[in-house]
Specification:
The protein is 39% helix and 19% strand. The protein is of the alpha/beta class. It has one domain: Aldolase class I (TIM Barrel, Alpha-Beta Barrel), CATH 3.20.20.70. The strands form two sheets. It has an eight-stranded parallel beta barrel, surrounded by nine helices. Strands 6-7 form a two-stranded antiparallel sheet.
Length: 313
């Protein structure tokens, strides 16, 4: 009876698995603050990971890259031979049907760790837009289906759309990190991506956690600029934002179940304080109930198995 009248369903097809790729050979290095999440080299280690993702019924991955070297502008970010570009070509050859999404930002690649070009001690919004356009084009050339700008630069969607269209990649979609808060829940990710800022913080360009109306404005602006999908990040502490954005757009909406949310669940589960399976499925179902069409989650691979084998809470 519960299954018959259930109002919201969660399936592996709703999930997106983040993957961190690094230079080197046969690298599989666990992120200390994110048990079960690894840095993977773009060789058989990456092959095995993506094979597993597909075998579990998940149809999309989100790629993050860690460069060999960093500089002020993040040169590897838009190199044809960058780590993400290499990973895209390898995955595309092996899995022509998987949806490949790439993070388009500067923080992992720059020596200062900020999400854009720094001038006079602050991020210069307009100078960053040209870089983001170059990155998106190289990702599309390497096989990306969707590019996901995450830096919260004003005008980033329009700039990327123009660059993609100008390069002939009119079918490459844009998943905008339209609503991205300056959140303490990102801590473990900054270890995973080696992207902590060298000075200051990201409140210049990420949103105040107290603001809801601003979220609606940001989502509307990105939709008007040509975004194909919108995102709210983080998810669990912002389900009201997910719901409000859902009510005001017809675009597909993605929630990002971020690293801090993942790490807290993992830590409590290792202590035996919670049932990890039930907590994860309940949280992900809550994101769907709030209005998310898809969910980026580090739990995705495990959740896909649990959805087939465990009773829903």
């Amino acid at each position: 009876m519960r299954q018959l009248v259930r109002e919201h369903q969660l399936s592996p097809a709703d999930l997106i698995q983040p993957v961190f790729v690094v230079h080197g050979t046969k690298v599989m290095r666990e992120v200390a603050s994110m048990p079960g999440v690894y840095h993977l080299s773009a060789d058989e280690r990456l092959d095995r990971e993506v094979d597993e993702v597909r075998d579990r019924g998940i149809g999309a991955v989100l790629l993050f890259g860690l460069p060999a070297a960093k500089d002020e502008v993040g040169s590897e970010n838009f190199s044809d031979d960058g780590i993400v570009q290499r990973a895209l070509r390898r995955i595309r050859e092996r899995h022509p049907d998987i949806l490949l999404i790439t993070d388009v930002c500067c923080c992992e690649y720059t020596s200062h760790g900020h999400c854009g070009i720094v001038r006079d001690g602050s991020v210069h919004n307009d100078a960053t837009l040209e870089i983001l356009g170059r990155v998106a084009v190289t990702h599309a050339q390497a096989g990306a289906d969707v590019v996901a700008p995450s830096g919260m630069m004003d005008g980033m969607v329009a700039a990327i759309r123009s660059a993609l269209d100008g390069g002939g990649y009119t079918d490459t979609a844009i998943l905008s990190y339209a609503v991205k808060y300056a959140s303490a829940f990102y801590g473990p990710f900054r270890e995973a991506a080696d992207s902590a800022p060298a000075f200051g913080d990201r409140r210049q360009y990420q949103m105040d956690p107290a603001n809801l109306r601003e979220a609606l404005l940001e989502a509307a602006l990105d939709e008007a600029e040509g975004a194909d999908l919108l995102m709210v990040k983080p998810a669990l502490a912002y389900l009201d934002v997910v719901r409000c954005v859902r009510e005001r757009t017809q675009l597909p909406l993605v929630a990002y179940n971020v690293s801090g949310e993942y790490a807290m669940v993992k830590a409590a589960a290792r202590q035996g304080w919670i049932d990890e399976c039930r907590v994860v499925l309940e949280a992900l179902t809550g994101m769907r109930r709030a209005g998310a069409d898809a969910i980026i989650s580090y739990h995705a691979k495990d959740a896909a198995v649990w959805l087939r084998t465990a009773e829903m809470p």
